[in-house]
Amino acid sequence: MPGVLPEGEPVPADGSLPATATRAVGARGFGVYVHVPFCASRCGYCDFNTYTADELGGGASREGYADTVLAELALAARVLGDAPPPRVDTVFVGGGTPTLLPADDLARILDGIDRTWGLAADAEVTTEANPESVTPESLKTLRAAGYTRISLGMQSAAPGVLAILDRRHRAGRATEAAREARDAGFDHVNLDLIYGTPGESADDFAASLAQVVAAGVDHVSAYALIVEDGTRLAARMRRGELPYPSDDVAADRYLAAESALDAAGFSWYEVSNWARTPAGRCRHNLLYWNGGDWWGLGPGAHSHVGGVRWWNVKHPAAYAKRLAAGESPGLAREVLTPDEAHTEDVMLRLRLASGLPLAVLADAGRAGARRALADGLLDPAGYAAGRAVLTLRGRLLADAVVRDLLP
Ligand SMILES: C[S@@+](CC[C@H](N)C(=O)[O-])C[C@H]1O[C@@H](n2cnc3c(N)ncnc32)[C@H](O)[C@@H]1O
Ligand code: SF4
């Protein structure tokens, strides 16, 4: 949930959607995202829409937050009233730090979603969690409430790297929390890593990967550090206190991740995501990447229903105020043009191991695919089967391949 929202046309006060959008809600799956915009402190690299207690000001509080989200859920039920989704396939509670809310509040929000639309019997229900903000007890409460998956922000095993990233947890706490989650009955546990942080050595990252593998989790996400404008980290780099990340180092780290995770039995299924088994893949993210419908609850949350995309007001106080007045918290929306929808489809599906059907490409894109194949960026077997599937080298250059596949 990045901090900067795009522009668009206004959302009606009652949140209503064009009839064209609600005609086949959930045809490609239906998910619910819940944004929890609170953090104990802000990590220097992060530009997500999240607030510390000091930054929050009046008009919004962690205490009242679950009820505010439930008020948006009631509005969502009214908007989709005549065209409810068949069922909720996935729920993803992200942040911010969802686990700063009491586990009972997270349980209440999930119960509200179930009562509103009904959770599928095999629904995937994830919450993100910061390692220092869960306990064996809170994890047991979440599991009993119906959460099926925990995603922990580990970032690194190296104390020096955690310090540069301003993380609050000590080295070792993330893998400990992952074991606590497994003991609480979670079969699906993810650890997030960030690589390429200034000061991180190849050995530091190798140690992070070794710890992740030893923790027995079934999913790993690894992201190159992005230096976001306006963050403390960006300011430190501008002042020369820290070096900017290097693309060559990031590529080396990516290859190290692929090699260690592959050796440990993980397979990539999206450029930055690996799972031990198909059942371990994050179905909620797959729903985003495959163009499914989802309702995003919370300040700054984005939603997508039937080709209409909208996003909520950003500040928790403005969000609560709109809902208290019985109004949609939607700030603006847009209907994707066919060209925009095509660009998005290529960008998202090319990053998947399942690849992109060559048939969706225009002539210029097919010519680009032939060049990428000749350059070793697309897999010959996938291509022969009619799909654009990135090779390992192609994964390192995914953005360039996307550009080549677009008109
Ligand atoms: C926004 S956080 C929310 C979860 C939780 N608060 C945490 O920090 O673990 C989700 C993940 O996004 C990734 N992330 C956030 N900002 C990033 C950045 N500037 N560069 C790379 N990864 C980033 C981190 O790996 C993080 O675990
Ligand atoms: S804890 Fe997570 S969401 Fe909060 S500031 Fe740090 S990276 Fe961002």
From TrEMBL:
The family annotation for this protein states: Belongs to the anaerobic coproporphyrinogen-III oxidase family. HemW subfamily.
The UniProt entry, under PROSITE patterns, shows: RADICAL_SAM (PS51918)
Per the annotation, which location comes first and is thus the protein's main one? cytoplasm
The job of this chain, per UniProt, is described as: Probably acts as a heme chaperone, transferring heme to an unknown acceptor. Binds one molecule of heme per monomer, possibly covalently. Binds 1 [4Fe-4S] cluster. The cluster is coordinated with 3 cysteines and an exchangeable S-adenosyl-L-methionine.
SUPFAM superfamilies referenced in this protein's UniProt entry, alphabetically? Radical SAM enzymes
Where does this one sit in the cell? Cytoplasm
Superkingdom classification of source? Bacteria
Gene3D superfamilies attached to this UniProt entry: Aldolase class I
Q: Which UniProt keywords apply?
A: 4Fe-4S, Chaperone, Cytoplasm, Heme, Iron, Iron-sulfur, Metal-binding, S-adenosyl-L-methionine
Q: Where is the Radical SAM core domain?
A: 24-267
Q: Which SMART domains match?
A: Elp3
Recorded protein name is Heme chaperone HemW
One Pfam family name from the record? Radical_SAM
Q: Which InterPro entries match?
A: Aldolase_TIM, Coproporphyrinogen-III_oxidase, Elp3/MiaA/NifB-like_rSAM, HemW-like, rSAM, rSAM_sf
